[in-house]
Amino acid sequence: MEVIISESKQELGSKAATMGAHLIQQSIDQNGIANIVVATGASQFEMLNELVKKDIDWSKVTCFHLDEYIGMSIEHPASFRKYLKERFVDKVNPKKFYYINAENNPEGECERLNGIISQHPIDVAFVGIGENGHLAFNDPPADFEIEDPYIFVNLDDDCRKQQMGEGWFNTLEDVPKKAISMSIKQILKSKNIICSVPDARKSNAVKNAVEGEVTPLVPSTILNKHSNTLLYLDLESSSLLK
Questions:
Q1: For the domain with range 2-234, which CATH number is right: 3.40.50.720, 3.65.10.10, 3.40.50.1360, 3.30.70.20?
Q2: Confidence check: pLDDT of 63 > 90
Q3: Using omega within 30 degrees of 0 as the cis cutoff, is the peptide bond preceding 141 cis?
């Protein structure tokens, strides 16, 4: 895992998007297409804002959704489908975007997506790290061994408090307790991983991810096992690193 530290969130987002766009274009040049994974949350605001400006032939790019709450309508302000539609999909119009629709039939949705993504090797995965060290919605202790690309997960209280703290929900009781998430093994199958982590509230999680032993108790430590992971930080999120 290579660490890149920027002066600000805006610079972090610009650098992460520029590298991500380069890797997407590289795949298009080599293969005629690119397959990517797109994440959500406050950590992705600046990166996505820059990525949608890049000169990429998005008609050659197939996209996958990283995680979504079970039972949530796309109309809900915290819906990750809504987030991605408004901030990314409607702006670039990719060849295909495979949303996770866990509203009514999550079991069937997992089966559907698992069949599709198995036919689409991922070139670039855009991800973040949670305050509890999670990767996607794989909260600690994460399952490092499960082979299924998309899985059901239970969200721990720290994860749910983060979602409330970011302003997506009014109370902790409003935050769902279950979600569909891309699994750890599936994320690690990505050829390249662009991990964007701004803000001081993530500094302890960043320190653990970068300097700690690889453990399911800090799921993001697994990124140290991936040879093409770029971790983009700002001064605040990197403040505890040695």
A1: 3.40.50.1360
A2: yes
A3: yes
